[in-house]
Inverse folding.
């Protein structure tokens, strides 16, 4: 089954859209502009080869092998990785695709597998330079001193240059108006400094591939919280803190904030350098958040308390912030590399899901992502150290919405949520089993003994799934002894890689069923139209029917107002056909089996009022989720978009 599946998707041609994106941003080019890579398989060869070479660094088993056995082993790993990437059933995050192999001799990167020698793999490893950065997610701490702040600005610049997205929690900074001993002056506060970070990042380019992306967090009990919530007000998408998503941090139990909200209580705002007793009603804070989110989509919320509750290294280490899109909470100087499995490709046209192949894909993907850690080069030593200590991974999914279309299950249904739990529980089980197996084979993450795993800790909340007994059994037995990675799972937005895979993004419903997209060529700035109709819909509709509705569909994006079979309307829902509560419940369904977080947008219709948005902010506190992002249709979008539409 697995082989057939791989072959089937290896042979499937890439869409024009996918090829265009690859050509614009992913294919290796010489400094002269001449392409070194011309096909998707060239990219896969390079990436699979470099990531397989990690076995020479991280696999103690190889020490006992003869040179011929070693070579066979590494070639086999390369071949497994190549097949998986080539089929586009699994893709790593963009920085891995962009940067793997930078610095290496081209001849070594692309020559036929049978001609590869051990020295060639070693040479590839030795040639990695400071741009060989393969991770998408970073968190940098910002300390309360001018030196600390500008040191962090420098770190932001270095990470942005290498292609990573960065999050910071600015709560350590003393509030606006507090005393500065050195100058006998008054501090200007966290928000003013965020502008410095924004400006620094605006000037640093990522080799024309994408603009930078930042997350700024201020905790709900910081004295400047009201100013922070207004920090992007009046944003026209271009001017104010353009590179930042902003989020209010909830470091305590979310239920405590819910209780304060419901009892109309005040929260005490505090900071060690703030000596005026300051209180504000939690309802006032939420009202302001809802008002601004209604206008611009910012701020979101991040439930840091909830993240630490399921963080295997807490309290030894603490999660202080997330990356820009929220799917990974990190402690100071940690980074994480992501990868996503396309569920739609694991489901055939009759709607039958291939669980056996799914398990194999998960296990190969965990090995792949774990290897990425060892071939990664970070621009800051503290990051290298933090990453090696915890070996955090973010393996997730994409193509969920397209899979549901194939199975004819509406996204906004109990059936879809129960399937989501089963899929994610199955994935958690296999990914964690593989991480423990790798721990046995290659060694645990160095901080394992400081973690909660030896006590039988389960790093997610769980709900009800077919795999609950096996999951409990795993964490109560082998996981107490072996774990290669502090956390393994996350659901990323997959803004770019889902386009390369020709599938729907992350766990999100499709945004539109059909559209014309104008893609900006970064090199020449020309815009070119690309036409698109959802592939599953196109297959399920008779050709003349598709022709009949095509223009209306491009205009509307949804089937909702089109004269067509009611059953199809229920199945082929898009983001704005779905009630906000159904979005929230889907986020919760997935989150219950994910150790890191989930990137999810709660879409609300344009007609929603500020009170409607407020209701979602309060409702979110009641669910086992780790954060909230709301987007009202047609509002001034200030999200740091990562999709190809942005190019
Ligand atoms: P991709 O599909 O390109 O792999 P995603 O859309 O899944 O990326 O985003 C994953 C993470 O990558 C984000 O949460 C963020 O940390 C980082 N990221 C995304 N876009 C950018 C960007 N333009 N610049 C820097 N980092 C980014």
């Amino acid at each position: 089954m697995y082989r057939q599946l791989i072959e089937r998707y290896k042979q499937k041609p890439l869409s024009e859209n996918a090829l265009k994106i690859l050509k614009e941003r992913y294919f290796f080019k010489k400094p002269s502009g001449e392409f070194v890579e011309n096909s998707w398989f060239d990219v896969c060869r390079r990436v699979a080869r470099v990531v397989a070479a990690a076995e020479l660094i991280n696999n103690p088993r190889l020490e006992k092998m003869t040179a011929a056995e070693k070579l066979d082993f590494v070639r086999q790993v390369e071949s497994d990785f190549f097949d998986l990437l080539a089929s586009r059933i699994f893709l790593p995050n963009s920085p891995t695709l962009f940067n793997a192999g930078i610095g290496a001799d081209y001849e070594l990167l692309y020559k036929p597998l049978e001609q590869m020698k051990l020295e060639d793999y070693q040479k590839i490893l030795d040639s990695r330079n400071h741009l060989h950065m393969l991770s998408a997610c970073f968190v940098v701490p910002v300390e309360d001193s001018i030196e600390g702040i500008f040191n962090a600005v420098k770190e932001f610049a270095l990470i942005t240059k290498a292609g990573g997205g960065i999050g910071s929690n600015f709560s350590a900074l003393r509030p606006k108006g507090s005393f500065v001993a050195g100058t006998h002056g008054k501090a200007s506060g966290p928000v003013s400094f965020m502008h410095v970070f924004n400006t620094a990042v605006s000037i640093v380019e990522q080799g024309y591939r994408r603009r930078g992306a930042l997350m700024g967090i201020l905790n709900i009990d910081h004295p400047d919280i009201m100013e922070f919530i207004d920090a992007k007000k009046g944003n026209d998408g271009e001017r104010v803190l353009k590179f930042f998503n902003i989020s209010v941090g909830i470091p305590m139990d979310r239920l405590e904030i819910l209780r304060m909200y419901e009892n109309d209580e005040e929260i005490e705002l505090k900071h060690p350098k703030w000596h005026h007793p300051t209180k504000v009603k939690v309802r006032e804070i939420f009202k302001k958040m809802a008002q601004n989110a209604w206008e611009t989509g910012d701020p979101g919320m991040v439930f840091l308390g909830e993240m630490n509750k399921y963080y295997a290294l807490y309290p030894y280490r603490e999660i202080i912030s997330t990356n820009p899109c929220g799917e990974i909470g990190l402690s100071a100087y940690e980074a994480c590399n992501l990868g996503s499995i396309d569920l739609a490709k694991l489901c055939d046209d009759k709607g039958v899901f291939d669980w056996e192949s799914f398990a194999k894909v998960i296990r190969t993907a965990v090995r792949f992502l774990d290897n990425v850690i060892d071939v990664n080069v970070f621009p800051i030593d503290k990051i290298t150290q933090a990453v090696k200590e915890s070996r955090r991974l973010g393996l997730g999914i994409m193509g969920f919405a397209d899979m549901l279309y194939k199975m004819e299950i509406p996204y906004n249904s109990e059936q879809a949520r129960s399937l989501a739990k089963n899929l994610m529980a199955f994935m958690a089980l296999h990914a964690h089993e593989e991480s423990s197996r790798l721990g046995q084979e290659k060694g645990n993450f160095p901080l394992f003994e400081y973690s909660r795993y030896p006590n039988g800790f389960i790093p997610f909340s769980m709900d009800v799934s077919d795999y609950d007994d096996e999951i409990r059994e795993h964490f109560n037995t082998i996981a107490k002894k072996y774990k290669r990675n502090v956390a393994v799972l996350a659901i990323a937005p997959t803004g770019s890689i889902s386009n390369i895979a020709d599938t729907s993004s992350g766990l999100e419903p499709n945004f539109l069923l059909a559209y014309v997209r104008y893609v900006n060529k970064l090199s020449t700035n020309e815009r070119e139209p690309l036409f698109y109709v959802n592939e599953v819909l196109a297959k399920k509709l008779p050709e003349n029917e598709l022709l009949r509705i095509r223009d209306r569909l491009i205009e509307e994006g949804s089937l909702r107002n089109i004269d067509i079979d009611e059953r199809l309307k229920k199945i082929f829902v898009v983001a704005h056909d779905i009630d906000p509560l159904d979005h929230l419940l889907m986020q919760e369904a997935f989150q219950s089996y994910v150790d890191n977080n989930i990137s999810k947008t709660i879409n609300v219709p344009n007609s929603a009022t500020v009170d409607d948005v407020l209701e979602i902010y309060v409702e979110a506190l009641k669910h086992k989720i780790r954060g909230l992002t709301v987007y009202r249709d047609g509002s001034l979008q200030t999200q740091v978009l990562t999709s190809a539409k942005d190019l």
Remarks:
- Residues 414-442 form the longest helix (29 residues).
- The pocket of adenosine-5'-diphosphate is lined by residues 93-94, 136-137, 164-165, 210-213, 323-325, 327, 338, 492-497, 642 (CB under 6 Å).
- The chain has three domains: 2-132+328-480, 137-322, 512-573.
- The first strand starts at residue 90 and ends at 92.
